[in-house]
């Protein structure tokens, strides 16, 4: 433990990470930030692979499927958790599970994660 003041122990500032995606629109090259980019099949496959890898870890067990708030007697769950999400639903949306709305963009996926 250090006796230094809290200001000298502040967290280091991390650089903002914003990947630029280059695409051709109407024959012209354009740059879009990654958050506006479509979820390309190659990226979708990589995301599914990584999420499934995470799903095999013991730490992920609470995030594998939607919370059954009613069944668990959590009457205020949806008041506290405004946008519930789980790894199984995310994977299903990426893979195009017919009962789930597919992601239209990388931003949608990132927002859910």
Walk me through what this model shows:
- The chain is of the alpha+beta class and 113 residues long.
- It is 31% helix and 11% strand.
- It contains 4 helices and 2 strands, in the order ββαααα.
- Strands 1-2 form a two-stranded antiparallel ribbon.
- β1 and β2 form a beta hairpin.
- The longest helix is centred in the middle third of the chain and has 15 residues.
- The chain is globular.
- About 15% of the residues have low confidence.
The rough form would be described as globular
Task: Round the mean pLDDT to the nearest integer and report it.
Answer: 78
Strand order of the largest sheet: 1-2
Main sheet, how many strands, which sense, barrel? 2 strands, antiparallel
- Give the radius of gyration: 19 Å
Oligomer: single chain
The termini sit apart by 35 Å
Low-confidence stretches: 14-30
**Helix/strand order:** EEHHHH
Helix content: 25-40%
Strands, total number: 2
Q: How many helices in DSSP terms?
A: 4
The structural class is alpha+beta
Strand fraction = 5-15%
């Amino acid at each position: 433990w250090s006796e230094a003041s809290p200001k000298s122990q502040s967290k280091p500032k991390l650089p903002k990470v914003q990947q630029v995606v280059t695409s051709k629109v109407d024959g012209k090259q354009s740059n879009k930030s990654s958050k506006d980019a479509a979820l390309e099949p190659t990226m979708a496959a990589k995301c599914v692979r990584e999420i499934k890898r995470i799903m095999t870890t013991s730490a992920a067990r609470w995030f594998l499927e939607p919370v059954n708030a009613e069944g668990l007697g959590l009457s205020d769950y949806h008041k506290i958790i405004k946008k519930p999400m789980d790894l199984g639903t995310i994977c299903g949306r990426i893979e195009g599970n017919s009962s789930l709305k597919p992601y239209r963009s990388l931003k949608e996926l990132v927002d859910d994660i």
